[in-house]
Specification:
The protein is an alpha/beta fold. Belongs to the PEP-utilizing enzyme family.
Amino acid sequence: MIDLNERNIVLGGQASGKIEAIELVGNILVHDGFIAPEYIESMKRRESVANTFLGNGISIPHGLPENRDEINKTGIAVLQIPAGVTWNSGEIVHLVVGIAAKSDEHIEVLTNLTNVLDDSETAGKLAKTKDVNEIIDALKGNSTTAKRPAPTLDTSDFDVSLDVTIGGEHGLHARPATHFVDIAKQFEAEIVVEFDGRSGNGKSLASLLKLGVSGGKTIRIHGRGPDSSSALASLKEAVDEGLGEEAEKNILPQIEHGWVPESVKQVIPGCTASPGIATGIVHQFTHNRIVVEAIAKDPEHESHELGQAIAAARRNIRLLYEEVRAKSGEPGAAIFRAHEAFLEDPEMLAETEALIKNGKSAGYAWRQVIDERVRVMEQHDDELLAARAMDLRDVGRRVLRHLAGVVQDAPFKPSEPVILIAEDLTPSDTAQLDPALILGFCTSGGGPTSHSAIIARSLGIPAIVAAGPSLLEIADNTMAILDGDTGNLYIEPSQSDIDAANKVKMQLEELRGDEHRTRFEPALTLDGKRIEVVANIGKASEAENAVNAGGEGIGLMRTEFLFLERETPPDEEEQFQSYKTMVTALNGLPIIIRTLDIGGDKEVSYLNLPHEENPFLGERGIRLCLNWPELFLTQLRAIYRASKYGPIRIMFPMIATLDELEAAKRLAEKARIEVDAKPVEIGIMVEVPSVVSMAREFAQEVDFFSIGTNDLTQYVMAIDRGHPTLAGKADSLHPAILRMIDHVVKEATRAGIWTGVCGGLAGEPLGATILAGLGVKELSMVIPSIAAVKARIRSISMKQAGELAQKALSCRDNKQVRALILP
């Protein structure tokens, strides 16, 4: 236990505000030799990153982890302010506990403080006491209240227990904790996780995050129930394998350019989150305030409203996941799986329902539960775990928007390119930024490990975080230079500095490699064989982006964006205008438009589709379209009308039988005749094993195949490709999938038609090489992968690709395939 005595405590203090209070308590720490004076500035900066208000009139200001070398020894100091000081809006602090944590010796004090928080009477007494010993007793755990923590976990009636060590640098943060929870939920057994004298529900994401388990720490897992042994064995295996966590790779490398401006009015330092330089005017971004009533008269109605709001939020999150995955791949989108897990957290839901039963409104109850967990997470010493509080806050706001009747905040869409300034950006905010209009962003809070930073990197948007509250005082339309490589925002630079920064920006873009510089060159192998490299897109606005990234057309246009998140389906004219816009933007390059593929995890309210136990095996894709012929015909007419303006191909999704294909082709022909259009090439997605098995017959009926490796892998391996714990095993490089692709390509070649691949496998350098070697003629992928894959194809001969493909076909599993060395 660290030393705490009368010298460390000041009673009856006064402070004009939070900053002065931090300085006063910091000076106590300095006077007693715990910290160097410089550490006080770090304590102030911490407030711009995370709120240190605990509740019940108590705050715990402390410095940032990177300034621990300014701590001489671990210690605490207490400043009592009987009159109170405003910490943040609506937060009044009476007890300021300054912490200098050189090691983990302060944990016991924090535990005791948490116990005081549960007793407002004791907290109020400490705020007014004139006896320092009462404060000492409370913080040392000698008082009655301090001895009232959650009772020691009784493990006598658990069936099985085991110890495991959490790997990774940051321990149980959102993604690995989600992985843990999802495995635990597969079993009936009660799962309890014990760490550092505390315990949490192993099936509750928020409960696990609250434990604050850092990397390298050991936890004890307890199980109770008929399948508890199996549950703990699976959890141990998952922990040993890393809980699905892989080290994050920067999509854009950070480059030391050495440039600094010569004449600027102000420099605002922060932390680099995404590299790159941006010059332009700034614009302040704020969220709409969400207001909810505190009291409600009908608990049953409020409970129903909560369920509806959570369901709506879940649909929003799933759509956002698909959008981000389409734009930047799985790593940037993965956090939204964890967001969905928050919505299913049993402890959060139970606590919210309890407040509703006590007369609170659904919105008020939900906000209370979210805010309490956010507060706990923000206090964690591990920077990454503290940053996850923003994810939970994001989920909380998403539900509150529905409960308050407030329309979801629209993504900011400026009329001209700007540098966005904000207190912080949620992952949802960041994912919806348009890189064409958002030159970069800078936030006063957040951290470089936040999911917003990860998404910014995947989108190629320069970003700075943790720049402090002075950032929010910058007026709109102020000229600035944002340097994501050094983490500095330069305000009101001279014209010469602007010109110099723009020059450096151009140099950096060139230094990102030959892949980018040669993106418009065709993907010709060393022996002169051409592979067409095209893009997967999900919005009309992305067509031009695909071409600018080096795409030679669109290999998959997902039309679902026109049908989702609305109350009525789009009419023919709206669809026609959208398709025409894309065709025009491509300026003669081909586009494959996939007809409506909803069902599965994509839901639309206006169709009133019945609930399905296995939606991926139910009414989705072409099955749904054939059951709604007018909806289908409207889309087909719009596509054929747009085909008069450029080369369009039509592709049907989720075909499983020849009957389905024939029915779809009949409706397509009907629509073509109705709008007097010329025939276009018609193909199908090869996603269902039945089509692979009958590829010879299907090849006689279509003009091309496009293999959707994501869904094909899902159906062949019997693994939901979005499953948070099993998706890693659904690898499209498994020999079972490659052999199916090989069979389809051979049957297509025999029939004189071509085969493309539009799944995630096409965007991997290894996958692209193997696919080319198997005879695939077109590779369609997310936009950021285009330049790299084209460069990869240009670096090999078709003979080398073929040899690598044959080796892959003879492998026993996906691990052997991935161990193959690229030529």
